[in-house]
Amino acid sequence: MNLTRNAHDKLNAVLAEVQKIKHSDFAYSDSVTALDLIEKTLRADLQRLDNLTPHSPENLKIAASEAATTHVIIFMELLGVILRSSNIRNAFEFYSPLQALAKRLIGNAARLILSSEWEYSPLTYPSTIPELPNYVLIGLPASESSNALIIPLAGHELGHSVWLTLNCSQQLKSTLKDTIVKKICDQWGAYLKFYPSASQDALTDLVGESTWRIAYIWAESQCQEVFCDIMGVRLFGESYLYAFEYLLAPNLTGEQSPLYPPMHIRASLLAHFYKHLGWEIPNKFTESFKDEESPFEPGTSESFFLSLAVDTTRSAVDALIRICLDHCNSKGIPLPDSDERDRLYQAFSKLVPATRITNIANIVNAGWKAHFDEHLWENRAAVFVKRRTVLNDLVLKTLEVMEIESRWNT
Which of 157, 246, 263, 296 is close enough to 289 for a disulfide, judged by CB 3.0 to 4.6 Å? Predict the structure, then answer.
């Protein structure tokens, strides 16, 4: 019974933390609701343990203890995210616009938790936690969590939830597999170095597919990342590129993860989509990103299949664009508007928040335009010396105005 007693004690310890966190000041109710759902699951685990007796089958004791421990591990991480969502370093001003965007993209049941994280790269837990249905958890780097100009990166994180909602992996499955097989046939000599007895006719049977399955797994993951980048551009336009460059250029680690395309490839595919929308790519955008080192030695099978995955991802970009555009258009999500951006920029130049706003993207795009105007407020010395802080406050205040106007109109 030590196994179940230990599980019982661990659950009670986590429940005690839940109660402590509930006493935090949360700006929005989705965090509190998440705590209630977590508590409900943990108490159900406790009840299962309490229903056991010394005479219960050993396999039931093990299963109940294992389920409880699994929830302890999962929820401890989530509780940290929820607790940090109450931290005042977060810019709560852009919570409501992002929540509204999530509901339009994913459905009215969507719930959002926006948190500051002690990791430099933004992260997400996209609607995949059974105990927190319809939840999207987005974490922005703590050092940037109050920086309004990086809001567009949340568009990438929302893209992960859209990817799951649309079951894009299944939509692309046959296309990715067919592309990989074709590319292997095109490089048959290189493939034979690793599988000398292989036959092209057998590439699609179970044994043949097992030889290149890793390329498919990597390509599927890379396609999801590219889709999310495309979603970020579709939602936010130029400001996504600027935020992407600000946070990620020239690269994050110096070594490519097989689950992500190389940074310069991601940048070039972003530029491709940007031009597809008829927009002019910002000057030297793609040149800001440098090649990452491959994690594999040249000439190895891993190196071959990683190259295959990257090529497959590049071949899928038009399909990813179509899925993204079809979904956003079906939800009536407007494209960023350069005229509106300029109108809002004029308000910022006068040091006043803008009004009559319908799209969060136009606010952030106006913010970036002001950011790049080196002469903005140069005749106001007291403002000019703290221009970055002043601009950030203007963008945040305009987001507040947008929320107020939205409530008035509903």
Answer: 263
Of 86, 103, 119, the domain-final residue: 86
User: What strands lie across the sheet with 123-126, from one edge to the other?
Assistant: 111-117, 135-141, 123-126
Domains of the chain: total: 4
pLDDT of residue 410: 64
Q: What is the mean pLDDT of each run of 10 residues along the chain (410 residues)?
A: 88 97 94 96 96 90 94 94 92 92 94 92 78 90 93 94 95 97 97 95 95 98 97 97 93 85 94 94 90 90 97 97 98 96 98 94 98 96 96 96 85
Examine the domain organization and report whether 113 and 222 are in the same domain. no
The answer to whether residues 308 and 236 belong to one domain is yes
| Residue ending a domain, choose from 140, 165, 190 | 165
For residues 212 and 305, membership in a common domain is answered with yes
Question: Does residue 193 share a domain with residue 138?
Answer: no
- The CA-CA-CA angle for residues 285, 152, 251, to 5°, reads 45
Amino acid at site 274:
Y
pTM score, whole prediction: 0.93
Burial degree of 106 (CB within 10 A; 0-12, 13-18, 19+): buried
